[in-house]
Design brief:
Blueprint: H1 6-16, E1 20-24, H2 28-41, E2 45-50, H3 51-57, H4 59-72, E3 77-84, H5 87-95, E4 100-103, H6 110-125, E5 130-135, E6 139-142, E7 145-147, H7 157-167, E8 171-174, E9 179-180, H8 193-202, E10 208-210, H9 218-226, H10 239-244, E11 250-255, H11 257-273, H12 280-301, H13 304-307
Length: 308
């Protein structure tokens, strides 16, 4: 099926009241695991590629993988640039077939963020590419994103509404207390869901986005630690919080760390139990299966099948 913009996918989710998984990939195995699971579950997904993934894999290689899947895929999906930092980042992605881009100007002043985001929106919309902006800064470390806690800010709802109107973004990432990476909370999570509800009340047709939403499953963390890893205090967003977001305007749930953890934990276990293995196809194959299981669980959690 042809690639769709994330605007189409998210507007449908907003209207029908469900969540869409936006899964970060940086190699063939992760991409195949996500798209094959989406096909199995007959559910739309958003494939996300970060600047770090582009640096690692090469944007031409990633484009070729997606174009191959586009010819045979039985589900709708979007190709989205995650955390683009400059206008040039977004133009490069659009030139390589991305149907959706995020311009992250959250570290800038409000006016500079508006100016940069509006510039990207004006350009992207000429090519029917949707744009995600961000207002408020999400803490944590992931790829090229590194924000210490004291510099993280909850989104001001009035600023978010003004920002959305001034820029014309198709979706808006907001900060309600989540973090990037596997180490999200030292204690119990305290997310300010009311921020999303207030924005949604005033801008009911604007899909909102939650970054830093990985659950960091205990069983996978235990597996990593059992087979030589060091994720002793890793803690993610409880699934009960994710499901409670349905109806708050949040439609796009970003998942990156969970895929990395599932992939790495399985490879560690397989190589420990099969020390004679030197064939990457063997341990990458079982790692793909674990990621497929995880993505399938996420899709069901996000209620795609029931409300699609």
């Amino acid at each position: 099926m042809p690639l769709l913009s994330s605007k189409i996918i998210l507007n449908n989710a907003l209207q029908k009241n469900y969540l869409v998984g936006a899964f970060n990939v940086n190699n063939l195995e992760l991409f195949k695991a996500v798209i094959s699971t989406a096909e199995k579950e007959a559910s739309p997904v958003i494939i996300q590629v970060s600047l770090g993934a582009i640096k690692y894999a090469g944007i031409d290689f990633l484009q070729a993988i997606v174009q191959t899947a586009e010819k045979t895929s039985t589900v709708n999906f979007a190709l989205h640039l995650d955390h683009g930092k400059t206008f040039e980042d977004c133009v490069n992605a659009i030139n390589h077939g991305f149907t959706s881009v995020m311009i992250d100007g959250s570290s800038l002043t409000f006016n500079d963020n508006v100016s940069l985001t509006k510039k990207v929106v004006d350009y992207a919309h000429k090519f029917n590419v949707s744009v995600e902006g961000e207002i408020g800064t999400i803490a944590g470390i992931e790829d090229n994103v590194n924000v210490i806690d004291e510099n993280s800010l909850y989104t001001n709802s009035d600023e978010a509404i003004k920002f959305a109107k001034l820029t014309g973004v198709d979706s808006l990432a907001i900060a309600i207390g989540t973090k990037h990476g596997a180490f999200k909370f030292a204690g119990e999570p305290n997310l300010k869901v009311g921020i999303a509800k207030e924005i949604h009340y005033k801008l009911p047709n604007l899909p909102l986005v939650l970054h830093g939403a990985s659950n960091v499953p205990d069983y996978l963390v235990e597996k990593i630690n059992k087979y030589g890893g060091k994720l002793k205090k890793a803690k993610g967003v409880p699934e009960s919080i994710i499901t409670s977001l349905i109806g708050t305007g949040i439609c796009k749930i970003n998942i990156d760390s969970d895929l990395r953890i599932a992939f790495t934990a399985t490879i560690r276990e397989y190589l420990f139990n099969n020390p004679e293995c030197i064939d990457p196809r063997e341990y990458l194959g079982v790692a793909m299966t674990e990621v497929q299981n995880l993505v399938s669980h996420k899709i069901c959690l996000f209620n795609l099948l029931k409300n699609k």
